[in-house]
Amino acid sequence: MELNKIAVLGAGTMGQGIAWALAAAGKEVILFDIYPEYCERAVKSIAKSLAKQEEKGKVPAGTADAVTGRIQPTGEFEKMAEADFIIECVFEKMEIKKDVYTRLDAILKPDIIVATNTSSLSITEIAAITKRSDKVIGMHFFNPAQVMKLVEVIPAAQTSQETIDIVVEFSKAIGKTPVVVKEGPGFVVNRILLPGMNEAAFILNEGLASAEDIDTAMKLGAGWPMGPLTLCDLVGVDIALAVCETLFRETGDPKYRPAPPLKQLVRAGWLGMKTGKGFFEYNK
Is residue 188 scored above 80 in pLDDT? Predict the structure, then answer.
């Protein structure tokens, strides 16, 4: 099956990175968001980043134009019907996901696979509301998606083996390393990583160490390339909170209860690097 034109739903941090990764791999990309200006901003951001890499000799001259030239930004949902494959990365709320999949069902050809980039929500629940439940699957990229090699491939209970095989091969075709994971709260990486970030926030809340010292301790003492609180800012404090809440709700295990600083930062609108402030400030 030739998958050459890929639709990406959502032009936030993950949508931008996924679109970039796909276009860099030679795929034509339809980048949709209900706010078209987000799509335009994403393409400009990709162009700016690649232009800097060209100046430094990290990528060949003309890369920025070649990559962005393969990305078609749009605010027209009906454009999704032109795609060979769909990657959905809208906000991590089940009601929003379900609305999107109901709308996709109305316009897509029956053989089109829809992959969700959810960090923690039930793919089986998402698939159950569609008319193509055997063609719904999780395809969890990691931030920054244009750099990170891993893709967790998560079948729903309804996903066919054919769909799994196609998505595994597609992941390899765009230069990623797929790992097939059974559905479960947090999958593999977030199941291990989020409690670490959350515990760092608890330690900060208890006043045991400063944010800077917590991150330094984990980098030098545990070999982390990035401290857990910086990582939380990179992921997005709102995303970290949402994943912790899902893990807590799905498992009932109190070890996943969100630390107070996560809630406080989200209430303040300080979501990390994307807003310029989270556990640390980035606009200095």
Answer: yes
